[in-house]
TrEMBL record:
It is found in: Cell membrane. Belongs to the CD36 family. InterPro entries: CD36_fam. The keyword Transmembrane helix applies. It holds the Pfam family CD36. PANTHER family: SCAVENGER RECEPTOR CLASS B TYPE-1 SR-B1, SENSORY NEURON MEMBRANE PROTEIN 2. It comes from the Eukaryota. Its main location: membrane. The keyword Glycoprotein applies. GO terms for cellular component: cytoplasm; plasma membrane. This is Sensory neuron membrane protein 2. Plays an olfactory role that is not restricted to pheromone sensitivity. GO terms for biological process: sensory perception of smell.
Length: 408
């Protein structure tokens, strides 16, 4: 009986030690290895199939500001706007031209996106709803001409009706379908000086303007993103270091952009550096990571995001990150990033040093057109901008940019 008890006790101790080893050494190591296996990019794996093409479309939601007092604005009144939306689109993503480096540590690819209107989810809104919006392409071209020479502006003013189809104001009657994807036509059947001006517009190769086979043009917000490539990416596969998975090595063969000017300290590296992921995937083991970086080709810059706390998505625990203050608020020589202060928009409201006020980013050098980025409803923007328009209702719960990342 004593011997049996000792044997059972020995077995108990062995099982306890074995359980501790499994619980503290073997199982965590196995889980760690499994996570790496499921995140690194190896051809033929389920993870790589998801990387090639998302198994289901994403929701792409668009809200548009409808101008309710266009004629009053022409008389010098402040614009009043009402938000309309969401207009919801299926967004399909697929990567093409995939090829690996010899050691499989890097993968090169291009990627395309397809947008299809989701009428059911958008109901009762439709793609053919009437809208009154700023005639963006006309006003942009006038601003560019004003910045160049007085003669350029005078010529365009004389030919305005021929180029833009007899506009009756600075605003445009359109529809979501036309404004977002199909395009607003202009430079239709032009001759003489008007045709020469349209040729100059074509030479600028602006993202949001496309030339049709008959020589006419169309402006649209997102057509340039629909079934077109946004460059060649080279990213890390994670096979050598899991913590580098999906980190961008090069975009179009470069690790630096040429869109942003030199800062007061003589360097544009802060603004032009390409780093981080493209936002569609992240390395594993994010728990405890306070900051991450995303590169967006849409706005020609890298964006820092910072950890603000835990969150969840459909019951799955996540870590929440929001854009750092240096995205739109802390920009200028005092923050060593005044290379973002391109000051290219004629008569823009800027500080004495040429930088925009808080909450706005000049994207003129990215779009080759006078474009300013803010958060929805100008959330966080300076009064110098928010006081110019009625109808803004910023709400952090709705309008803050955030990313939820599964931390394991």
């Amino acid at each position: 009986m004593v011997q049996c008890t000792l044997v059972l006790a020995g077995i108990g101790v062995f099982m306890a030690v074995g359980g501790a080893l499994l619980g503290w050494v073997v199982f965590p190591g196995a889980v760690h290895d499994k996570i790496i296996e499921n995140t690194e990019l190896r051809q033929g794996t389920p993870q790589f199939k998801r990387f090639e093409a998302l198994p289901q479309p994403l929701d792409f939601k668009v809200f548009i500001f409808n101008v309710t007092n266009p004629y009053e604005v022409q008389m010098g009144k402040r614009p009043r706007v009402v938000e309309v939306g969401p207009y919801i689109y299926f967004q399909y993503r697929q990567k093409d031209n995939i090829r690996f480096s010899r050691d499989r540590s890097k993968v090169h690819f291009s990627q395309q996106q397809l947008y299809v209107f989701d009428a059911e989810s958008s109901y009762p809104l439709t793609e053919n709803d009437p809208l009154m919006v700023l005639n963006m392409h006309m006003n942009s071209i006038l601003q560019i001409a004003e910045d160049e020479t007085y003669d350029s502006l005078r010529l365009i003013n004389v030919e305005l009706n021929r180029i833009f189809g007899r506009p009756d104001s600075m605003f445009l009657r359109t529809t979501p379908k036309e404004f977002l994807f199909d395009g607003v036509p202009f430079c239709v059947n032009v001759i003489g000086i008007a045709k020469a001006i349209c040729k100059e517009i074509e030479k600028r190769n602006t993202k949001t303007i496309r030339v049709l086979p008959d020589g006419s043009m169309k402006f649209s917000f997102f057509n340039h993103k629909n079934m077109t490539e946004d460059g060649i990416y080279t990213i890390n596969t994670g096979v050598k270091n899991a913590l580098e998975t999906q980190m961008i090595e090069f975009w179009n063969g470069k690790n630096m952009l040429d869109k942003w000017s030199n800062s007061s300290r003589g360097s544009s590296m802060t603004c032009n550096k390409i780093e981080g992921t493209d936002g569609s995937g992240y390395p594993p083991f994010r728990e405890g990571v306070q900051r991450m970086t995303i590169f967006s080709s849409d706005i020609c810059r890298t964006v820092d995001i910072k950890y603000v706390g835990s969150s969840s998505y459909e019951g799955i625990p996540a870590a929440r990150y929001v854009t750092d203050d240096n995205f739109l608020n802390k920009i200028g020589p005092e923050h060593n990033n005044d290379c973002y202060c391109v000051n290219r928009i004629p008569k823009a409201i800027v500080k004495a040093n040429g930088c925009l006020y808080e909450g706005a980013l000049d994207l003129s050098t990215c779009f080759d057109a006078p474009v300013v980025l803010t958060l929805p409803h100008m959330m966080g923007a300076a009064e110098e901008y928010t006081s110019l328009i009625d109808g803004m209702h910023p709400n952090p719960e709705k309008h803050q940019i955030f990313v939820d990342v599964e931390p394991v």
